Amino acid sequence: MSVATKEELVITEEGKCAVCGGKNVQYGDSEVAEQSVYYEIDCDDCGACGREWYNLEYQDTRMVPGEKPAGARSIEGDRE
Ligand SMILES: [Zn+2]
Predict the structure, then answer these.
(1) Which of 13, 23, 47, 61 is deepest in the core (most CB within 10 A)?
(2) In angstroms, what is the span from residue 41 Cα to ligand 1's centroid?
(3) What's the CA gap between 7 and 10, in Å, rounded?
(4) Adjacent-strand bridge partners of 51
(5) What distance in angstroms lies between residue 75's CA and the mean position of ligand 1's atoms?
(6) Distance 28 CA to ligand 1 centre (A)
């Protein structure tokens, strides 16, 4: 990880540029970190770029009794 040489501007408003306050942000790739997901964002108004962070929260666990994962089946679709 590179150390930020410039001061980071932080806001807590989704879809908004922290530098100029503009709402014309473009979303790029998303990455999953430990308990968070971030999207790379670029501001169309001032050209600033940054990351928009989201927390990952545990919701629930859902399982189907007796159901096997698709990958665990025998290879029968590969007949040709
Ligand atoms: Zn901006």
Answers:
(1) 23
(2) 10
(3) 10
(4) 40
(5) 53
(6) 15
| CA–CA dist 24, 42 (Å, integer) | 8
Cα 60 versus chain centre, distance: 20
Residue 75 has pLDDT above 70, yes or no: no
CA dist., res. 4 & res. 2, Å (int)? 6
Cα(13) to centroid(ligand 1), Å: 13
> How many angstroms separate the most distant Cα atoms in the chain?
60
Residues whose CB falls within 8 Å of the CB of residue 9, separated by 6 or more in sequence, listed in order: 18, 19, 50
In the chain, the amino acid numbered 73 is R
Predicted local confidence at residue 26, as pLDDT: 97
- Whole-number Å distance, alpha carbon 24 to ligand 1 midpoint, is 8
Name the pTM for this structure: 0.64
8 Å CB contact between 39 and 51: yes
